[in-house]
Design a protein that fits this description.
heterotrimer, A: 418 residues, alpha/beta, Aconitase, domain 3, 2 domains, 15 helices, C: 168 residues, 7-stranded mixed sheet, 8 helices, 20% strand
Chain lengths: 418, 415, 168
């Protein structure tokens, strides 16, 4: 009795059924590469062929370094543009578009049942729309460009049943941090993580994205939230009718490696402390920790809803003296929305430095710290040295916690502002 | 005495000064940006080892970075912040805007004063009737900061009289670029410039700004516009305080040059230097991949409004990335209120934090070898922005080119 | 072509060694193994870097290579002369990247338990054996498909062969 991933990989491998541990050759529906596409192109040059299996399955979004600030990166990005033009790759977005994952989902290119690979580990995010998404190295994407296939070991599945209602000020990000703290950074290594229950069903697609994004920090291969009316409405808004996709659900009798039951009603805001994502504490234990910088951004939490959540606390208040608040919206669409509804103005007036859309400080495009500095970030990783000095620190949390922290200049429970 | 002589005389405690004399003058304002602050502070702390005599006169603006991409750069900004705090100087952190726009908006520039800065375009502040010039880091570290003084050789003054009424689509920027090409890059070495004539006097202050801006580009020491009612009203509105203004005596000039600009078409400064100015018709059709409003010569509210005029009902060309870098937070906030941020964004432009933008390519602005950018920046020397080519033009020309995908005469886009 | 037995002196790491430590993001502008090797493990300091460059085998705890999908995390080790990584467990993307770049990645908790820093560690991937200071430990050999990729020196060289064969 198959789980979600067993069904979706079987179909993509052209097999009746597959079992965990089995290695299959899968034909992905979409292969994403970001501003590192230049590496894929160089690998293609080494391969000595220019023949692509299916350019319509290739998607490129220039997001990690946007725009270029060194000659080398400028040349690399130009290589990507020329390649896309030469091969007629229509799914190409330049440095002004935003974060790859968000752009592809906003464009309606990610649909239930699809198998998607990407040169970014947080490709697990596509599970928010009931698709299989996983990160791979650039050579693999190149190989897939040419052959249309790649090998995949069918993972076992972890089922997380989540019930209850979150209290105000506590979010999907807090839930995921708590879960990562419980299960640890290799708690779901090689597993497909399925989120079931009334809680995920109550979430917007944006919050489901946050969940599936953070699932990567459990070591997961992919993540999944069952598609429902919320999913269908999201896709319909983007011009994708139900006939254009086939929803895939795990069998009710499906066999899971492990099942975890979670109740969220008593959950408090959580913070991942230096220097691992699973070093998670409830907010009370770290409140008052001084910060130098707050970063609201990344594919985990820079979507429209996330920025609105932050602005709710920042509106009419100011960033604490001596603190830098860096906000990087996820995409052009998000910028349009927050400009229109006054969120942008509220953030600016509070003293935020709002950058152009993209990965921003999470990927080292700005936000670097000197020795002894501390950043509170809404990103999904806090490894030592990721944002500059090896002697700097990163705490992770929700946009609400980040906003509250920016106002006080120290880690602060957002519920104090509600 | 002319305005420069009057200011230098007062500042050096002299009844009168004449061109060629060297004077030691009190400095009323020192402007340092994030790169020069670091270097200047290092020399001050490690070699000069004196405190800052008049910290209230020192203004530091982090404009080249909006956020450091590397640890080294983060360390530099951290050192700057610590230095600024230790000495009690004014600090505008990342995201405040372009140094000159910030200093002016925050009320730090007054007529009749001596303003020095590390940025070579510091003369731009002569717009409001002060004597403003760029000095090297060592001057600041050795004289300006510890003693509040600087030595100057009193320059000769050349008056540039501009008259005429420009045709629609031709802006103050075009006239300023035209003059740069006419005067030539070595044209005014060590002289001070006074921009005058009915054309200049008829401009609002932030358009007059574009003329002293070119002083360094033609080799001059400083440039100014005599302060008048318009200047004083502008400053009064900005700071709530209406200053007194000294005006120079009209006859004390070494030379008067005049230009009639009614027949001018939009101008473009082509690589490799800012003096290589051509009418836009001579370069129309050159493909560009980047367009930018920002830098010393742009990012003004005027520029954003002009760009919006062109982009209304149109879209940025698919092969072009159009960057909009507001010159200050005030401009950004105002642009938001006027709906211009939404308008330009919808047309395909990308907004960046108030800063120096692509100038010096810290957070942005590296071009690939066969790429070209048209911008409102003040400088286009090769190598500043990766290996690409920089064309300098007005906001209208920049916006029109962004739509067309190549250098274009903006008059085709505006009625 | 990969020899049957590879190995040499080992350097030991603990659990959860992440990809930001293995190769910091600022160096991802390169894909050259030699250039990247200069910066492998840079956050841990020059002594650790020197050890890695002189030891053909890395022995590590759980979740080695956790974090990003950056392929250069494997490439930089190859450039530094690492021939095999023997760990308690691997992060899945890092494991894939090892196979695809021709770096031997072996999951063998018992061998990791037995190996001390500086010990001689040898891996025979066909037999599925790790030898540590005279003792042998078994691990599950690679499936045929992965072995072919590994033995070709990685995915690109393997694919190049396949395409050449198809052309003929």
């Amino acid at each position: 009795m198959p789980t979600f991933v067993e069904k979706v990989l079987a179909r993509a491998a052209g097999l009746a059924e597959v079992a965990p541990g089995q290695i299959v050759d899968v034909e992905p529906d979409l292969y994403m590469s970001h501003s590192a596409s230049w590496r894929c192109i160089r690998a293609l040059e080494r391969l000595g062929t220019d023949r692509l299996y299916d350019p319509s399955r290739i998607a490129m979004v220039m997001d990690h370094i946007s725009p270029a600030r060194t000659a080398k990166t400028a040349d690399d990005q130009r290589l990507c543009r020329e390649f896309a033009a030469r091969h007629g790759i229509a799914k190409f977005w330049d440095v002004d578009a935003g974060i790859a994952h968000l752009v592809l989902m906003e464009e309606g290119l990610v649909r239930p049942g699809m198998v998607i690979i990407g040169t970014d580990s947080h490709s697990t995010i596509y599970g928010a729309l009931g698709a299989f998404g996983t990160g791979v190295g650039f050579s693999e994407v190149t190989a897939t460009w040419v052959t249309g296939k790649l090998w995949m070991k069918v993972p076992g599945s972890l089922r997380v049943d989540i019930e209850g209602r979150m209290s105000p000020g506590v979010t999907a990000k807090d839930l995921m941090l708590w879960l990562i703290g419980q299960l640890t950074a290799d708690g779901a290594t090689y597993l497909s993580v399925e989120f079931h229950g009334s809680y995920p069903a109550s979430l917007t697609v944006s919050e489901r994205m946050t969940m599936c994004n953070l699932a990567m920090e459990l070591g997961a291969k992919n993540a999944y939230v069952p598609p429902d009316d919320v999913t269908r409405a999201y896709l319909a808004e983007r011009g994708v009718p139900p006939g254009a996709y086939e929803e895939v659900f795990p069998d009710p009798e499906a066999q899971y490696v492990r099942t975890v039951a979670v109740e969220v009603s008593q959950l408090e805001p959580q913070v991942a402390c230096p220097h691992t994502v699973d070093n998670v504490r409830p907010i009370g234990e770290v409140a008052g920790t001084r910060v130098d910088q707050v970063f609201i951004g990344s594919c985990a939490n820079a979507k429209y809803d996330d920025l609105v959540e932050a602005a709710r606390i920042l509106k009419g208040r100011r960033v604490a003296p001596g603190v830098r608040l860096l906000v990087t919206p996820a995409s052009r669409q998000v910028v349009a929305q927050i400009v229109r509804d006054g969120t942008y103005a509220a953030l600016l007036e509070a003293g935020a430095l709002i950058t152009n859309p993209g990965c921003g400080a999470c990927a080292g495009d700005g936000g670097a710290m000197a020795d002894g500095e501390v950043t509170f970030s809404t990103a999904n990783r806090n490894f030592q040295g990721r944002m500059g000095s090896y002697r700097s620190e990163i705490y992770l949390g929700s946009p609400a916690t980040a906003a509250a922290t920016a106002v006080r200049g120290a880690i602060t429970d957002p519920r104090e502002f509600l | 005495m002319n305005l420069v002589e009057k200011i230098l005389a007062r500042a050096s405690g002299r009844a009168r000064v004449t061109p060629g004399e060297v004077v030691i003058a009190d400095v009323d304002r020192i402007l340092l940006h994030d790169l020069s602050c670091y270097l200047t502070a290092k020399v001050l702390e490690e070699e000069v080892r004196q405190p800052v005599r008049y910290p209230e006169r020192v203004v530091v603006v982090f404009d080249h970075h909006f956020s450091p991409p590397t640890e080294e750069q983060a360390r530099m900004l951290q050192a700057n912040r610590a230095w600024a705090q230790r000495h009690g100087v004014h600090l505008f952190d990342c995201g405040s805007g372009n140094i000159h726009h910030v200093a002016l908006h925050a009320g730090f520039i007054q007529p009749g004063t001596v303003v020095v800065g590390s940025d070579s375009h510091t003369p731009v502040h002569g717009t409001v009737g002060c004597f403003a010039t760029g000095l090297g880091n060592y001057s600041h570290a050795a004289l300006g900061l510890p003693f509040g003084k600087a030595w100057f050789r009193v320059p000769e003054l050349v008056r540039i009289e501009v008259e005429g009424t420009t045709r629609p689509g031709v802006t103050a920027r075009d006239v300023a670029l035209f003059l740069t090409g006419q005067i030539g890059e070595g044209g005014m070495i060590y002289r001070a410039l006074e921009f005058a004539g009915p054309y200049v006097e008829g401009l609002e202050v932030f358009d007059r700004w574009l003329f002293p801006l070119i002083a360094v580009d033609v080799g001059a020491k400083s440039g100014h516009v005599q302060p008048d009612e318009r200047t004083l009203n502008f400053l009064a509105e900005l700071t709530g305080h209406r200053p007194e203004a000294v005006r120079g005596d009209g006859d004390d000039v070494a030379e008067v040059l005049g230009w009639e600009v009614s027949g001018l078409e939009p101008q473009v400064a082509c690589p490799p230097t800012v003096g290589n100015v051509h009418p836009v018709s001579e370069v129309a059709g050159v493909p560009i991949q980047w367009a930018e409003l920002g830098g010393h010569g742009g990012g003004r509210l005027q520029d954003i409004r002009l760009a919006a005029q062109v982009l209304r009902g149109r879209h940025v060309h698919p092969g072009v990335r159009f960057n909009v870098v507001p010159s200050s937070r005030w401009v950004f906030t105002q642009a938001l209120r006027e709906g211009l941020v939404e308008e330009l964004h919808r047309a395909g432009a990308t907004w960046f934090p108030p800063s120096a933008g692509s100038n010096q390519a810290i957070n942005m602005g590296a071009l690939a070898e066969d790429e070209a950018m048209v911008s409102t920046h003040a400088r286009n020397f090769p190598g500043r922005n990766g290996s690409g080519r920089m064309y300098l033009a007005s906001a209208l020309t920049v916006a029109a080119s962004a739509v067309a995908g190549c250098l274009s005469d903006p008059r085709e886009f505006v009625r | 072509m990969m020899e049957e037995r590879v190995g040499g002196r080992c350097v030991r790491f603990g659990d959860s060694v992440n990809t930001d430590v293995i190769i910091p993001g600022r160096y991802l502008v390169s894909i050259d193994p030699v250039e990247l090797a200069e910066h492998a493990f840079e956050p841990l300091g020059p002594e650790v870097q020197a050890k890695v460059r002189s030891a053909p085998v890395i022995v590590a705890g759980a979740n080695f290579g956790c974090g990003s999908a950056r392929e250069q995390a494997a490439t930089c080790l190859i450039g530094a002369g690492v021939r095999a990584v023997v760990a308690r467990s691997f992060a899945r993307v890092f494991f894939r990247n090892c196979i695809n770049t021709g770096l031997l990645a072996v999951e063998c908790p018992a061998a990791v338990e037995a190996a001390q820093d500086g010990d001689e560690v040898w891996v025979d991937h066909r037999e599925g054996l790790v030898e540590v200071a005279g003792r042998s430990f078994r691990f599950a050999p690679y499936p045929e498909s992965l072995r072919r990729i590994l033995e070709s020196g990685g995915l690109i060289p393997y694919l190049k062969q396949v395409l050449a064969t198809q052309a003929r």
